[in-house]
Amino acid sequence: MKNFLISVLIATLIPVTFAQDEWVLKMGVFRGRETVIRVLNTRPSLEEKATLPYLIAIVWRYTGEGSTKQMPNPSEIERMDAFEALIHEKLVKQGIAKPVLVLTGGLQRELLYYVSE
Question: Model-level pTM?
Fold first, then answer.
């Protein structure tokens, strides 16, 4: 189901570069809530899928206090970005994980990664 979602999103989003990877980014409605959607522009290769066979979701719930439309406030964004940078440094650069989708909205950020065992 998530692979289908990723495929549909790739077809309709615009390219943006984040942390050396090519992403597509769009503001839209997902699960009935205004959401920022960031998805990897290319599908993982067959080699990557063999090395990273599991898809996991990390969900970060935030308060959105002082923010509008159930989006994170600046201090929450800073903490979430630092968390993503740490994952990138410790897991992605080591080949243990590959980010594929980030959904932010509705008082939560959901990060999807392909990972090894």
Answer: 0.78
Look at phi and psi of residue 51 and say left if phi exceeds 0, alpha if psi is from -120 to 50, else beta: alpha
* Helix ranges (DSSP H) in 1-117: 2-12, 46-51, 74-87
Q: pLDDT band for position 21 (50/70/90)?
A: low
Q: What residues have CB less than 8 Å from 38, skipping those under 6 apart?
A: 16, 18, 23, 24, 25, 101, 102, 103, 104
1 Cβ partners below 8 Å, 6+ apart? Answer: none
pLDDT tens digits for 92-108?
999 999 999 999 999 99
Residue 65 gets the label, from left (phi > 0), alpha (psi -120 to 50) or beta, of beta
